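Mods, move this if it's the wrong board.
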Amino acid sequence: MNDCTAAGVVRAIKERNFRIPEDIGVVSFDDTYIASLMTPQLTSVGCNYDEYGQNIIRSAVSAIAGNTIPHETLIEPELAVRSSCCVLES
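Not the wrong board. Structure tokens:
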């Protein structure tokens, strides 16, 4: 789910009197500004958008020049650990 959907999930969890992260952990995707503004702040997986944009531009320029471009490029995601999840003790 993305950060906006996670905001609704957090609200539903709180309405049912569960605690985040003690009872339920929440992790979202996108790592937008919403993730850090929420209470608790959302742990979120984000994309390195600078690298993503640079890769798009390089591929476009290369394609315009008639060069072969890779079919697939992997960009390492970034995990922002915040207070919506915790480490479980074993």
